[in-house]
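Input record (Table S2, row 335):
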Amino acid sequence: MSSSEDHCYRLLTDYANGFMVSQVLFVACELGVFDLLAEAPGPLAVAAAVGASSHAMECLLDSCVSLKLLKLEMRGGQDEDMAFYGNTEMSRVYLSRVSPTSQCSMLLYMARTTYHCWGHLAQAVREGKNQYLRTFGVPAEELFTAIYSRSEGEQVQFMQALWEVWSMHGRSVLTVFDLSLFPLVCDLGGGAGALAKQCRCLYPRCHITVFDLPEVVRTAEEHFSLSEEEQIGFQEGDFFKDRLLEADLYILARILHDWVDGKCSQLLERVYQSCKPGERWGPLLMQLYSLNMLVQTEGQERTPSHYHALLSSAGFRDFQFKKTGVIYYAIVARK
Ligand SMILES: C[S@@+](CC[C@H](N)C(=O)[O-])C[C@H]1O[C@@H](n2cnc3c(N)ncnc32)[C@H](O)[C@@H]1O
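Output record (S-adenosylmethionine complex):
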């Protein structure tokens, strides 16, 4: 076998075995291995705690060692060496439930829901549609009603899973633009309020309301009780049917990817109708400078979207607008 054939075969084997790696991770989370090992170091203790076979548990823990999810130390016992397993940095930070950056609920959601749906990938490709009904026997015309109707526990876990991702990425997403210009914020389909909570921390002067389905708002209030000081409002409703509250900024985090184009357009049109016109009023300095232009020239100061329209109609594309921190904005557009 040539070295390139050898490489291809290894790659093929890695691809084929990929599901086993995911399963080891999922099952170790499901059995609470990472939390138990923080307290009890050996395979026997962990197996006993979850009522599992000690031999099988040892195999699982050894696989976790190879995947760097656990570390292993052999210590001398009375008659023979004893295996002591412990959490690695990765499992301590992401796989222990007590860690503020724990991803356990996301992994459990993937194990109990996503993984099973992937089992029907061939049918999904043939039919070009999701496999929720085939996987769980629940019709998915209304996808979220289907997810939430499985059980209250599943609903809490799904919401917790969505929350966990923002513990990792919320700050980066919320600081890529300066949102301090938007006093009233509505997080549409904001779930339990994970992103809203971070938005309040980063922009303490904004007033933020999470808008979501009634069952989600009830579960958020019951299981994710955000403290009074966090000052996050919740409003129940269906964003396709009910009146949206007026806001300067709407957050649609991981919302549009759930829907076909027609429904995305429907939702965006509703958001457009409710959105307060913002930049036309602009900061005071811009109004004064516009008056300054009025009294001296035939021109005016313009908003970024006004410049965008002018540049696009001249044929420019890739419009980029940036605040500079001083009184002038900078705009670049390409031919
Ligand atoms: C994929 S989750 C995203 C949640 C949150 N934005 C995040 O990024 O973590 C989609 C959210 O939209 C909500 N949702 C789905 N259909 C809705 C509807 N018709 N009206 C209001 N909220 C809806 C779901 O309950 C869920 O919280």
